[in-house]
Amino acid sequence: MSVTAGPRASIEQRPQQRSRAALVTGLVILLGALVVVCFFSITMGARGVGPGTIWKAFSDYDPSAASETVIREMRVPRTLIGLFAGAALGLSGTILQGLTRNPLADPGIMGINAGAAAAIVFSIMVLGAQSPGTYVWFAFAGAGIATVAVYGIASFGREGATPVKLALAGAAVTAMLTSVTNAIVLNNESALNELRFWQVGSLAGRYFPVFWQTLPFLVIGIVVALGAGRALNGLALGEDLAHALGQRVRLTRIVMFVTVAVLCGAATAACGPVVFVGLVVPHMARMICGPDYRWILAYALVLTPIILLIADIAGRVIVSPGELQVGVVLGVIGAPVFILLVRYRSITEL
């Protein structure tokens, strides 16, 4: 994945359309916004709590106090899962768009989330897997198989895997895998009641056991993804030029697709198949910081959890004391944005 010093410098200087100071400042501002959003994620809901209650929940915890229990056992793990799963989805969407040169590439649209979800449901309902630490491995396998299937279908024909064919193949594979998932779940009424919220993507009911069992995979995937900026910058010049500059393109693609499978598999195991956020955020990051993937990945790492947690908070507030699942809120927001991305080509230039 290495490039020689001279060509690497030219690759990395080309995207510098914004000063480093401005990019660092923007990232710091977003980190501050993320802290604020996390605070509201912990305090807002059917049972409102204040800063004093939060402090007491960690400094002098009283198990008999309902508000403190809600904070420690429900809202904190929910917020942490939103942070890490959101980062995973944003980074995987960025990597997919960079690898495929397809502005519509997204773990949801490409069938990767559906593959992970189908494998998880199969492992739980058919094989009897119980803990996320067990069925997360099925999620990785399902995500990987879905990726191979989409690219295999899209590669048929003279032109190979074009962006349009990839999107169509992803839609077809997603429909097929969703049908398989529904067929398994609908045959078991208790399973249907348990999984119907998870299937649309939800942070509700996700507690610390789920967080701790998926955290190692999320952290490993995030670290590898953040180191992929230079490789994606090389691929942005075109596969032939990347080869000429000494980049090991095939190895880069394999490592990146495995990373996407790990990120999507762990995120899906944690909170279900959340869609659209991996499609929209890379474009938002690109509009802010330009085409340098080192900065796009950094911005996606912070932007995606912000959007995911805001959608989760909105779902709690809109229908309080009930709540809308985060996948439903993102679907309502993401559908018009998806139409804009398809309609206006200039927005999606890579």
TrEMBL record:
Protein name according to UniProt: Iron chelate uptake ABC transporter family permease subunit
Topology versus the membrane: Multi-pass membrane protein
Membership in a protein family: Belongs to the binding-protein-dependent transport system permease family. FecCD subfamily.
InterPro entries the UniProt entry points to: ABC_BtuC-like (IPR037294), ABC_transptr_permease_BtuC (IPR000522)
Protein keywords: Cell membrane, Membrane, Transmembrane, Transmembrane helix, Transport
Localization (cell): Cell membrane
Statement: the UniProt record of this protein carries the keyword Transmembrane: yes
Domain of life assignment: Bacteria
Keyword Membrane: yes
Residues spanning the membrane: 21-42, 80-99, 111-129, 135-154, 166-186, 210-233, 254-281, 293-314, 326-344
SUPFAM superfamilies hit by this protein: ABC transporter involved in vitamin B12 uptake, BtuC
